[in-house]
Amino acid sequence: MREVALVFFKLGWVAFGGPAAHIAMMEDEFVQRRRWLDREHFLDLVGLTQLIPGPNSTEMVIHLGYLRAGWRGLWVAGVAFLVPAILLTLGLAWLYEAYGSVPAVGSLLKGVQPVVVAVLLLVGWRLGKRAAQGPVLALLAIAVCAAVLLGAAPLWALLGGTLLGTLVLSRPRPGELKAVDLLLLGLIFLKVGSILYGSGYVLIAFLEDDLVLRQQWLTQATLVDSVAAGQLTPGPVLATSTFIGYHLAGLPGAAVATAGIFLPSFVFVALLGPVVKRLRNAPAARAFLSAVRASAVGLLAAVVVLLAKTTLDAPAPIAIAVVAFALGFRFKVAVPWLLGGGALAGLAMGALS
């Protein structure tokens, strides 16, 4: 149990780069070095995390903790991995609330926001190449994107695209709140954690629909700032929930939002762990997975368009976004370096203005 706690706590501090990078780190640590499991078993677990909602890398951590130390290991591993991201994001949220109006911090965020848009575009491109393979899945992604841009709710667009794609692929070929309802806040994040497929960045579409448009608790600018905070810290980007919860209702809000979004992952892994191989080998499950990936890419594309409208509103942020995308696409520069460069560019713009 001590080994599980220490190794995942350490991993939580260095897990930059998104789910794919996190899983690569785990393969090196637990298959190659510690030999907790063989490569085939590891790939089985990766396959299962793709079949259930929630953050894939966090679910891999929970699986590995269960494998190593049973039910207690499941919880210890997951919590140890999340604690660094939650603490760092909470610290950024406190700084944002305390100094967000200070010109230096405002300039920093002005530089980071366009980089977030560029990173979303990069992620969408990489996911799209894998998820939208073939004309059916490509058209499905485009349809979901168009539906959201035309006003459809992200949840219904995602579910509709997933259902339609599954049926086709399965056929035989031929502003800050002073008081907030914590229960409602928790339910919103519990819902998102229960239905979130694909990249963690798809989170933005759901939060925009619930918190910006429907409840009007956040502005789009604050949502982008929250995502930037989640990107600046290691671990899953879903730690954005901690930032938003703190912004809306202080420490109780941070606790409720964080627990709500991550709790479903623990439950799904605990319930579905014993049926890994059967799920991966089922034709219907493979069709469902292909459809939901393509739909999630379409949803992500719509998010990029909507955020670009509000963030890329002047030549300077447009230039920052273009440079960040070029560096990430051509030279594979890691996301933390892109965000750091954006922050420096924002500070430079603030000093010159």
Strand content: under 5%
Count of the separate structural domains: 1
The termini sit apart by 54 Å
Helix content: over 70%
Mean pLDDT: 81
Radius of gyration over C-alpha positions, nearest whole angstrom: 20 Å
Number of helices, where a helix is a run of at least 4 consecutive DSSP H or I residues: 15
Which sheet architecture does the biggest sheet show? none
Task: Detail the poorly predicted runs.
Answer: none
Number of strands: 0
Order of helices and strands: HHHHHHHHHHHHHHH
Q: Based on CA inertia axes, which overall geometry fits? A: globular
Characterization of this structure:
The protein is mainly alpha-helical and 353 residues long. The chain has one domain (2-175, 262-352). It contains 15 helices and no strands. The chain has helices at 2-14, 19-33, 39-51, 56-99, 103-131, 135-149, 154-170, 182-195, 203-214, 220-232, 240-272, 276-281, 283-311, 315-330, 335-352. The termini are far apart. The mean pLDDT is 81.
In short:
The protein has 15 helices and no strands.
Summary keywords:
mainly alpha; 15 helices; about 80% helix; about 0% strand
Topology of this structure?
Elements: H1 2-14, H2 19-33, H3 39-51, H4 56-99, H5 103-131, H6 135-149, H7 154-170, H8 182-195, H9 203-214, H10 220-232, H11 240-272, H12 276-281, H13 283-311, H14 315-330, H15 335-352
